Amino acid sequence: MQAKYTPSETVDFIVIGSGAAGGAVAKELSVAGYRVVVLEQGPYLKEKDFKHDEILHSTRSPLMNDPRLQPSTFRKNDTEQFTVGRSAGYGRQVGGGTVHFTANYWRFHEIDFHEREMWGPIAGTGFDNWPISYAELEPYYTKAEWDVGVSGLAGANPFDSFRSKPFPLPPLPVKSSGVLFERGAKKLGLHPYPSPMAILSQPYRGRGACTHCGFCMRYGCEIGAKSSTLASLIRVAERTGKCEIRADSYVRRIQTDDNGRVTGAVYFDKDRREVFQKAKAVVLCANGAESPRLLLMSKSNRFPNGLANSSGLVGKYLMYDSGTTVHGMFEHPLNEYKSVEVTRVVQDHYNADPKRGFYGGGGMDSRFGFNPISFATRGLPPELPTWGAEYKKSLVEYYTHTMSSMSHTTTLPLPTNRIELDPELKDDWGLPAMRITYQNHPDDIATLAFVRERQMEVLEAAGAKKVWGRPVREIRGSVHLMGTARMGNDPQKSVVDKFHRAHDVRNLFVVDGSSFVTSGRQQPTLTIQALAYRAADFMVRSAKAGEI
Amino acid sequence: MEFSRRDLLMGSLSFATLAEIAEAQEHAHTAASSNGKPVFAYLDAETAKEIEALTSCIIPSDDTPGAKEAGVVYFIDRALATFDEPRRGVYRDGLADLQARRKSMFPLSTSIASLAPARQTELLRTIERTDFFQLVRTHTLYGFLGDPSYGGNRNGVGWKVVGFDHKMQHQPPFGFYDAEIKRGTK
Fold first, then answer.
1. What's this model's pTM, rounded to 2 decimal places?
2. A217 to chain B: which residues are within 8 Å by CB?
3. Higher-confidence residue: B36 or B5?
4. What is the percentage of chain B residues whose pLDDT exceeds 90?
5. Which of A129, A338, A404, B19 yields a CA-CA distance of 20 to 30 A from A374?
6. Are A281 and A262 in contact (CB under 8 A)?
7. Which positions in chain B touch A327 (Cβ < 8 Å)?
8. How many angstroms separate the CA atoms of B24 and A347, rounded?
């Protein structure tokens, strides 16, 4: 029943990318009756294609962009030499990063949307208020949670902003890491709560509940209990008979006409033939790294600096995610390899506090983060032997008795942190590779160090026999890519307006992490999705009124 | 999710394609089914014995099975025959260097495998920081704890040793502390 369109047929919308944002936009537009083609550069995998194979997943992340085919160059600043690799990681299949994600589904707080107003400017950064408020986005947070299926406990986090509806599903069962993290946090007067997860704790809308196999992060869910857009929204979109998911379609250019309107997209199909799909409008949801790259690759006489780039801000203000991990070893077995990653979160340090002497804040969670091989290769405290009888003994002693905590902290938007087209390196299709320049603001690092201390305290208070973790360092790569086509009311200071319409091109929308003005406290996926629902709502209203 | 350069470079295997991975598993399957007696695809028997001795130093067999019982050397053989073929040279050169060290440290010895375990360890201590040793260690851990379809971790013995119960379905309580809560004793 999936729709099938020909490239010469002018469809209503092309959606580029099928992840958190693209999946939601495609579903909303097709349910509203519009003809949609989703161009996804990766393959169309199904549940049966996913495997619990750690060797496969650590040798070549099969669900992510492959740096051998799509390399990028990275440098900290303009004077540093480039290295070639993968400094921007993203999901590359139908469902995008929601297929292999950990499924943490935090909402941002009210403060995230108007923090500059509260804190004041920060010199040398693009730290700013968003053009929308939490209240404007709240209905769409709720919509996303109910549409994809999120498990959690409303009201359990005293720092959460208001919500109009509870979670559709109760929290997943607490793991030993969650029990210990809660115990330690409460001893310190903090406020732990069940982590909101986009994983089904009970059957929901025809999908089965989580069976606690323990392979979430980096893996696809074989039973569809993880609420990827693949498992939830894309099937709904296809069932409308209006939406065609065209996988293995790698867009190289968004086409415009002499009037400055978008006319469609040129992509490489599976056999690397160029195809031009016509459309009345294009919605770009390719993620915070690929979206600006594609805009920059879509330059024309009319748009010499790249499409939608009259502000010069396409690709600028790149924000990486940020966080530190610490580990604790306990007396009794935790068996953290079972079930979902995260079951408890603490957000007492979410807001920035001038008393700390720097800007920033974050949350911290309880998790494990290892599979057997990754634990054996790098999970033990660094001072322990790395081979031999003593190593084996430690491995046996620690593997089932260890938990971790990961923090999720602010990163500031700097104009010098950016995605550009590499002047020399090409990808396997002959397109300019991505060039990334990224260096943390000193306050990012100070925040990491501050929250890392709090994580250590919680694990110690929980009664860990030993607590350890790598020292804080600069972040050189990320899977959460934000800020590179920021939203705003002023066309000179932003790329898209508050409804994600490009200031320069009326029938082009950009909706994904690139829209973010600030980083929040990471875990951006739900916010990306809420923005996508809100943008789609606007697109439907505008299309009905003939205003696209 | 934290995503660092270290994860990219993490003492890992060569970047392999899906086809190469499939090939490695196919090799392992073929080997396992040759009259029930494993055969080597790349290593000769003598070299395999030496490498097996190294893997046994990294994860010894004591009161629980080690690299030898898990068949780690068969995993290494498949890796060097398929996706880690570019690293054959690291083994060739590393082993040659190690044999030279052996002869100089223990002039009367004839092979690494025939050395007493304490002497094997003593010998390996001298190359701990080399790329060769790090690669053997990485391979050993992959072969001990990776999916048995790659030729190592026979019958899941590596998983049993560390306490990993590989199942599609687990039921809460998962560990001691959540069980305690469930029982209401804490």
1. 0.95
2. 1
3. B36
4. 76
5. B19
6. yes
7. none
8. 45
For residue A263, give the DSSP letter: E
A325: nearest CA partner in chain B: B2
Amino acid at A179: V
* Residue A59: its H or E element: helix A54-59
Cβ A338 vs Cβ B177: under 8 Å: no
User: Cβ–Cβ contacts within 10 Å for residue B121, how many?
Assistant: 16
Burial (CB count <10 Å: 0-12, 13-18, 19+), residue B43? buried
> Strand A325-329 relative to strand A466-469: parallel, antiparallel, unpaired?
antiparallel
For residue A122, how many C-alpha atoms fall within 13 Å in the half-sphere facing its CB? 25
Q: Which residues pair with A274 in a beta bridge?
A: A268
Residue A216 at interface with chain B, using a CB cutoff of 8 Å: no
User: At which residue do the structure tokens 């109009």 appear?
Assistant: A164
Q: Which of residues 334-373 of A touch B (CB under 8 A)?
A: 334-339, 372-373
Can you give the three-state secondary structure of B17-53, one letter per residue?
Answer: CHHHHHHHHHHHHHHHCCCCCCCCCCCCHHHHHHHHH
Q: For residue range A22-61, what is the model confidence (pLDDT) as tens digits? A: 999 999 999 999 999 999 999 999 999 999 999 998 877 8
- At position A374, the amino acid (one-letter code) is S
| Local confidence band at B4 (pLDDT 50, 70, 90 cut-offs) | very low
Residue A506 tokens read as 């009326």
A377 and B163: CB-CB below 8 Å? no
**Are the CB atoms for A167 and A152 separated by under 8 Å?**
yes
Residue with tokens 């350890």: A468
H-helix or E-strand spanning residue A267: strand A262-268
Beta bridge partners of residue A487, listed in sequence order: A496
Give A74's strand partners. Answer: A83, A436
Cβ atoms within 10 Å, residue A433: 21
The b-or-e profile of A137-160 (16+ CB within 10 A means b, else e) is bbebbbbbbbbbbbbbeeebbeeb
Nearest to B147 among A55, A86, A324 (CB): A55
Per the prediction, chain A carries an average pLDDT of: 97
Residues of chain A contacting residue B85, judged by C-beta atoms under 8 Å apart: none
Give the residue from A414, A418, A412 showing the smallest Cα distance to A436. A418
Residue A66 and residue A456 in contact, taking contact as beta carbons nearer than 8 Å: no
For residue A52, the chain B residues in CB contact (below 8 A) are 147, 166, 168
Distance from CA of B16 to the nearest CA of A (A): 6
Among candidate residues A159, A163, A171, A162, the one with its CA nearest the CA of residue A142: A163
- Strand order of the sheet with strand A83-85? A83-85, A72-75, A432-437, A418-426
Q: How far is CA A521 from the centre of its chain?
A: 12
Asked if residue B10 has pLDDT above 70, the reply is no
ipTM above 0.90?
yes
Distance from A361 to chain B by nearest Cα, in Å? 17
In this predicted structure, what is the pLDDT of residue B7?
Answer: 35
Contact state of A396 with B162 under an 8 Å Cβ cutoff: yes
Q: How many CB atoms lie within 10 A of CB A404?
A: 23
Helical residues (DSSP H) of A93-171, grouped into ranges: 110-113, 115-119, 134-148
Query: Which residue in the set A102, A212, A334 is minimally distant from B169, CB to CB?
Result: A212
Number of Cβ atoms within 10 Å of the Cβ of A327: 25
Whole-number Å distance between alpha carbons of A391 and A380: 9
A333 and B175 within 8 Å at the Cβ level: the answer is yes
Instruction: Map B88-133 to HEC letters.
Output: HHHHHHHHHHHHHHHHHHCCCCCCCCCCCHHHHHHHHHCCCCCHHH
